[in-house]
Amino acid sequence: MSHDPAHSLITGANADRRERAGLAARSVQSLFGERLFGIPGTWIGAVGFPHPTQFSTKWHYWWQAHLLDALVDAAQREATSGQDAGPTRERAHRLLRSIALRSGGQVVFNNYYDDMSWLMLALGRFRHLEEDAGGKTRHLTKAGSDLLKAIRDAHTGDLDGGVFWTRERTYKNTATTGPAALIAVRTHAAQECASLLSWLESHLWDASKGVFKDGINIVTDDDGSTGTKLEEAVYTYNSGPALAAAVELAQTSTGAEAKRWATFAAQIIAGADKEFGRDMGNRRVLKTHGSGDAGLFTGILVRYLAEAAESKALDPEDRATACRLVLDTADAFWAGRREFDPDLDFNDPQAQPDPARVVAIFSPNPLDHADTAQPVGRTVELGTQVQAWTALEAAARLEATV
User: Is 401's pLDDT higher than 90?
Assistant: First the structure.
């Protein structure tokens, strides 16, 4: 009998989390998926549902990166469940092709290094998925190499280290440095990862709260001299990649180094629980940050809390805290969903929903039901739905592995 608190949470949970993740996957893909400019062989996520009717030059590159990550989650779940993951893997290929086309023919077109880092992380997971399935990976390796070069160019000695946020190079922040640290450890650059995490710890870590401040601006005074300005805002997603990087360093290091990073990971988990956790009945649910880009933030944290919950490098109690935050947040998203049949004729009083077509809309805020936070008639944003999907996939993965 297992005495692992994280395992106890799983075995006492509902047994249908894979089905929940499957509905979320179907919902996002069917409601938002479309061809890019109508081009055959492409597939991309529309920014809203119903889909915008007019073309806009503004689009959300990094939302698509997390959509790719979610497709990888779904394909892994399907494969481990004995389902055919081939169609999902093919859709992921089409999404990557569409991202490159939409970016002018290259994946590094974006101005933001954090956006490129999110895509790099998704690409790395996708490449491993394809390797395991015997698929083609040459183009994935090339895209990853191009992204890695751009990201590493933004890691400079300015401000003693860290990674710049944009090509303007006036701001170094957690949102870029954390993912870059995780990329480093996943590309066998453990020392670079440790350097980036150490920079975060010394410059942006609030030890009293267990969270990261957002970043440091380089400012120019009227006399031409330069100084810095600290941005103290705190967001859920800033804890996620830094946590995962610390966990992976703890797993690959030995002795004092392994203990150091396991301790740092435990502190990040405790801070996430303390600063972002909210009581909802008997659940401990993570707060979210509304809509727009912020509508994805907490899904990112949930993804990496799940990875921490799976890691034997951490103490059982720390894993249990991470696990509970993942499961409770995912369960709250699920409980607050609104289901409907998008093909149903609502003018026909005899019309009945087809279970095979039913999809779900998820609340941007797991503390509120979708009927309140996302009422009928309001545009549904892709980012908020990928956030919920990511959380549900994370819970399904824990159910299978912890």
Answer: no
Residue 211 in 3-state DSSP?
strand
Question: Measured in whole angstroms, how far is the alpha carbon of residue 133 from the centre of its chain?
Answer: 23
pLDDT at position 350 is: 64
pLDDT tens, 216-229? 999 988 777 889 99
Give the residue with greater pLDDT, 342 vs 323.
Answer: 323
Q: What's the CA gap between 117 and 393, in Å, rounded?
A: 21
Does the model's pTM come out above 0.85?
yes
The DSSP bridge partners found for residue 44 are 34
| Residue 40 clears pLDDT 70, i.e. is over it | yes
| Nearest alpha carbon to residue 382 among 122, 117, 103, 50 | 50
**Which is nearest to 107 in space by CA: 75, 150, 70, 78?**
150
How distant is the alpha carbon of residue 93 from its chain centre?
Answer: 19
Q: How far apart are CA 261 and CA 275, in angstroms?
A: 21
- Please, are residues 366 and 286 in contact by the beta-carbon 8 Å criterion? yes
Which helix (H) or strand (E) segment holds residue 65: the answer is helix 61-80
Q: Going by DSSP bridges, is the β-strand pair 277-280/283-286 parallel, antiparallel, or unpaired?
A: antiparallel
Cβ(382)–Cβ(289) below 8 Å: no
